[in-house]
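Task card 7
Instruction: Convert sequence to structure tokens.
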Amino acid sequence: MNIRKGVFAVSVKSEHIKMVPPDLENQFNRVVDENKRLQIQFSSAAKQVRELNEFIQIMLNLSPFGICIIQKHKMIYTNKAFTEAFGFSPKELRDMSPLDIVYAEDREHARKSAEAMLKGETQSFFMFRVMTQQDKIKWIMGSVAFIHMNEKRAVLGNFVDLTEGRVIQLAYNDPLTGLANRMLMMDRLEQAIVTAKRRNGQLALLFLDLDEFKDVNDVHGHLVGDALLVEIANGLKDVIRRENDTIARIGGDEFLILLTDISQKDHIENIVGHLFERFQEPVLFGNPPLRIKVNFSIGIALFPQNGEDSDALIRNADMAMYRIKRARGKNHFCFF
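Output:
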């Protein structure tokens, strides 16, 4: 055996074994220990990722909201609530375009609403109808947002089936009168405009403002004023009965009435005449009973003559209402 200080060699039966210096061996051991620590850490992280994915999958399937992921205009994922709401199996929905299941007359509205939300132009949700596989029409409320899936941009859709339950009433109806609120009126008006454009049809939007309603609140109090508003809403519903027409309360004493499928101007004038006739006599209500005369002014804007979008129609109907109120006083109407 030959021994030298420092790096040395040992000769055993003609085999030469090179020994590692102590400082290099310590470095090697530290590397081994660090590798073991990283393996344990990676294993723990991988386990956490698996558990998180399992948790997310469970939450998605337990969620009452219909959720889908859209990539390249195809639905690559749908949860249980989504398949139940739309009436299609996951296999049938896979690789379908979302617009394929939207009711034909609402597709343009749904597409524009989703695009506006993705561009950040609105923070609200939108409402549309779908035709299920069982040929049942359902109202759906939805919202969309951009996400990343497999390092590529995708769209996350979140939807609620409004057909069953009271969600739609709470979100879209005036709590006092039960009439549509501004949000629902805007949705109905936009959908009606899309339909009218396709069919070359005509719409009428009536802006109705109660005359001297502030005096009722000042003299009798707000409880009586609220009760009178309920009676007025019921009277409006007595006149506006067609399913495709909409009455909305958009302010304290302001109402909008949407009339669809209007063929002649005389038809609008007849409806306005019936509205004035309905409130010709004072409204009797309350205990002890009160008799209060209801007067109102109406401004009317026509689509497409007076505007081709909802904002223009509302603005012009409002202007017409104030014009007739200043020129003729209460209980008159005016076309823009």
